Amino acid sequence: MKHVIIGTAGHVDHGKTLLVKALTGIDTDRLTEEKKRGITIELGFAHLDFDDGTQAGIVDVPGHEKFIKNMLAGAGGIDLAMLVVAADEGFMPQTVEHLGILSLLGIRDGLVVITKCDMVDPEWVEMVKEDVKAQTEGTFLSGKPIYTVSACTGQGVAELKEKLGELVRAAGEKNLRIPFRLPIDRVFSVDGFGTVVTGTLIEGALAVGDMAEVLPTGFQARVRNLQVHGRDVESAYAGQRVAVNLAGTKKSDLARGDTIAKPGSVRRSLMLDVRLQNLKNSQRTILTGSQLHLYHGSSVRLCKVVLLDREALAPGESCCAQLRMTEELAAKCGDRFVVRFYSPLETIGGGVVLDDCPVRHKRGDERVLEALAIRESGSGDEKLLQAVAEQGTALPGLEKLAGSLSREPEELEAELNALCAAGRLLEPLPRRYLAGSVFDALWESCRSILTQYHKQNPLHGGMKVAELRQKLLKGADQAVADALLAALRHEGKIKAVADRYALADFSVHLTKRQTGIRDRILQAYRKAGLETPGLDEIYGMFEAKEQTDCKQVVESLVSGGGLVMLTPQICVHREVYEQVCRRTAEHFAGEEELTLAQFRDMLSTSRKYALAVLEYYDKNKILKKDGDIRRPGPAFQAIAPREEL
């Protein structure tokens, strides 16, 4: 599913928050002071649901010049801009500044909304429209749609929402292979959970249980819980607003401006090499040695500018520069940033990061300028990408790649890490690499295989893992094949269903009669507990005309995980099996071995059913049989209890 963030922008009191409420029904002003003063001070968040099931997040930013810092903290994750202009005032200073910020942050699509149209004559609205067209000329909003609305009367809101839905559906897919990164814009505590941070997940995918590094401090914490739009989720994806509960942290450990990321994926530095742009409408010339405020993600740093090829950067010009900060910053190549004049505070420019951890440069050094030009063009990695792609799904390692390119492994490792961080390479196994283009082709093959399987087996929960490995990655080492399937699952393209894989959006659809049969079967197995009737006895519960449906439903329940088939004749309800697994795990928490007799007595059942479970464990390598005793096997973790939140 595509995940998109829509951001508001515009002058104070131009109706951004009221417009968001008209679109979503959510009032994003949550602070008492905001209610009292009638203006947005902090970032506000809402979600917009469309009729086709598509959903977008909305970031509502403050428009007052005093709160530009807050606006910038939420603007970094915006995909689509909604520039708001009040019909009774037109373009104002913060409208211009916000438009400049959005351009500097690399936002390329959006629209303009003229609000408060019920307060002026239609002729005046047309005049404001013409002014908007003139003011946006030459920007990313040039020629974009202009909508006239009244949040109070509802005029134009439905049409605006329809257009936003079109833009959301047309927005590009995000690269979920990049290690996750989330700039923090809120930190708070929740009774019973502890510290929670929120932000827009700008890269990658984040899952419960992942370890996260908090930057720039560098300490690590486990992700204990995730929420998206107030709902608990197991995974979150780039383009979503996410609340992250970090285990073992205090509120004082984190702050707005920090970032959580996959450990080791983002470097900290006191310097950045950048392409620096001075806005065309800027009133300042940037001199080498100037002190500026640097805004990156949700963070702000004081920095000194060193222009590398000139003394001064005039409005409308750009050049390579080095930004030297007073505090460490965690950034990545390709990141966008904004700079504001030291005093008075006003937005004057911004740019893109070329090197996130450079050494100190001398001004006018041609070698530095040439190296930055290569970094900016991105052509220096093509040979390495090609070498990895030629190996297909073999996942070549560092030493093999170094040998094929006649390069030193130590020299190559940094480039491989950078390409992985950029999403152009994947690292499915430690220090073994896969080209993004090969992964895309693998996904297309996997989608074709599973689509055909679902078509032929519509009642099966999915294709068995071993069968998918054989068809998709014939001849591949099992560890490699499992790592590649795990990568597809991590991106949300496929899902695990019991011992099978299915397309992420696939679901079993039963007829009304099959649904009734399913409910009767599940009830019978739930009631029977572990000592279940054989399948022939289950089939005997139904009339002859229902036998075909009955067998199909049982297959569906087994493939979907609702029933666990211990032997060809013995199935148990999933809940019963999980209870047995918990008892087994509890036993091995205090003992190293287990006999059949002990297991039979522990479950208060007969030898027949105890043996059926143990043989199922043996077959799936959950336990390992050694004579008359069993010990935990390689897959024992599959039944080990998961830590509760």
Helix content: 25-40%
Low-confidence parts lasting 5 or more residues at pLDDT below 50? 34-41
Structural class: alpha+beta
User: What distance lies between the first and last C-alpha atoms, to the nearest angstrom?
Assistant: 27 Å
Please tell me how large the radius of gyration is.
29 Å
The major β-sheet equals: 8 strands, antiparallel
Shape call: globular
Under the CATH scheme, the architecture of the largest domain is 3-Layer(aba) Sandwich
Features:
single chain; 645 residues; Rossmann fold; Elongation Factor Tu (Ef-tu), domain 3; 8-stranded antiparallel sheet; globular
In short:
Helices cover 34% and strands 27% of the residues. It is of the alpha+beta class and 645 residues long.
What can you tell me about this protein's structure?
The protein is of the alpha+beta class and 645 residues long. It folds into five domains: 4-170, 3-Layer(aba) Sandwich (Rossmann fold); 181-261, Beta Barrel (Elongation Factor Tu (Ef-tu), domain 3); 267-377, Beta Barrel (Elongation Factor Tu (Ef-tu), domain 3); 392-509, Winged helix-like DNA-binding domain superfamily/Winged helix DNA-binding domain (Arc Repressor Mutant, subunit A, Orthogonal Bundle), CATH 1.10.10.10; 512-638, Arc Repressor Mutant, subunit A (Orthogonal Bundle). The chain is 34% helix and 27% strand. It is built from 19 helices and 34 strands. The strands form nine sheets. Strands 7, 8, 9, 11, 12, 13, 15 and 16 form an eight-stranded antiparallel beta sheet that branches. A six-stranded mixed beta sheet has the order 2-3-1-4-5-6, with helices on both faces. It starts with a strand and ends in a 13-residue tail after the last strand.
